[in-house]
User: What shape does this take?
Amino acid sequence: MTSNGDDAVKVVPVRHYGRWVGAFVVVILIAMVVHTIFSKVGTGVNICSTINGIRHCHQPQRWRFYWNIVFHFFTTSEVINGLYLTLALTALAMTFGILLGVILAVMRRSQNRLLSSTAWTYTWFFRGTPVLVQLFFWFEIQALYSSITLGLPFLPVTFVHLNLIAILNPFRAAALALGLNEAAYMSEIARAGLLAVDEGQIEAATSIGMTRGQSLRLVVLPQAMRVIIPPTGNEVISMLKTSSLASAVAVTELFGATSNISAANFQVMPLLIVASLWYLIVTTVLSIGQFYLERHYAKGALRNPPPTPIQRLRDDLKGIASKYRTKRGLQTAVSS
Amino acid sequence: MTTPMVEAIGVRKSYVGIEVLKGVDLTVTRGEVTCLIGPSGSGKSTLLRCINHLEKHDAGELRVDGELVGYEARNGKLYELSDKKICGERAQIGMVFQRFNLFQHLNAIDNITVGQIQVKGVKEADAVAKARELLARVGLEGKEEHYPAQLSGGQQQRVAIARALAMDPKLMLFDEPTSALDPELVGEVLDVMKDLARSGMTMIVVTHEMNFAKEVANTVYFLDQGVIEESGDPKVVLTSPSSARLQSFLSKVL
Assistant: This one.
């Protein structure tokens, strides 16, 4: 049996009737959702007028999802400032969380029992209490300490003196709380990454004379990154949204800002949509960044790294073009 | 008489109650090839790992190049060496592993240069030049940019040998370097090792390749259950073994 040539046998692909029905149902559902999102409804107010003795009434229409109001508030300075605070909170909390998390993960691996159990206790405490409670705790910390003085215990030696009331404004308290909480989760992620690196890699590093620090920095961590990056990307996206809790301690980040606006004008739904759209946009950008970062750290682990979406699109177009060309080629061959 | 490269006297090592080495004596002369053979679990690899202090031996005396491994003798006491000094000692001993253990995130060149640059402080350009030279020596020209995952087992092991050689070791340890390879790839690695032996490198090779031992080794040691059962010229020891244990071992592997 030949698959090409003049006497080619016609191959009939399997018909997937179930899939076709499913796809049809989904298409209908998607159409309904899109339609309702962009539909208009009556305002419920009749406006009537009498022209030439005949009474005319009509009801003005509005967007069901208040798109005009959403559009109006989407780029107001209050919302943009809120977005800026959200991004700053996320960046600060994640940077702090990742650094402290990696330190905690390395401490967990230490042969010194005090270091490893301290790291364990930290994770136990910060994972064991709700992040909203921790936010309020750091917001109210002045109730316990109005200032912090670092020195040697029982000795009249002082290194640093911090006035907490002046330093810990709501934004900083929120960044600190979110970062400390995040470190507990990041330490588990980093620990999983370190465990994923083969013991033989450390032995090889040791055998060429590297110190423990060098083998960690040059051999173990770069390879652990491949395992650490995907869940860390998740954490960044999760933090972006968790930061909205900071609105509870008077930080006017994105959600706080939109809440403030709707508290004044009672347009709750439109402003929730404004906040949601901005969160979606930032999440999308972060996901794209995560893809390229993962690709970078997959270096050496995969024989062929997966194509980027742009490469894939280019290949698809090439594929279609060549298919078209061969089809035309075949036709000309047949006709000639 | 010059001091031997490696000298072990009554070396012992236990893992959680199981004694793996029960007093091993061994002498490796400079420029010679020594093969350690024996059944698995006999302590061959452990002895090798004690020599570059990947494992700490519990008792006995172990010297490399006349110096105690991991300790310093002063005023009749043994002082444990600092991590930094132990790293310095290890940098002079090359080791090749059964499972290659190439750094997966680095290409062939970077695998060979990272130790030179970070441990020995060699300039990057010099390290790269040396890495290219070594890759050519192990027959891997043109594979400079390849990552370990893109190389066959035999090629990976040859890069691993080049990585060890880049540190200018005075002693090379091979821990079953061909055991994880497909039979057809064993030859290319053994050829590199033979070439290295001819160049006068002091080598200790844990192996199951009896032909290699017969052809290349100056001395062969047969370990069984943590003690050296028999040792000497491989042509004598491997062809007419005197102990019953070695006789039965050879009848199984040859």
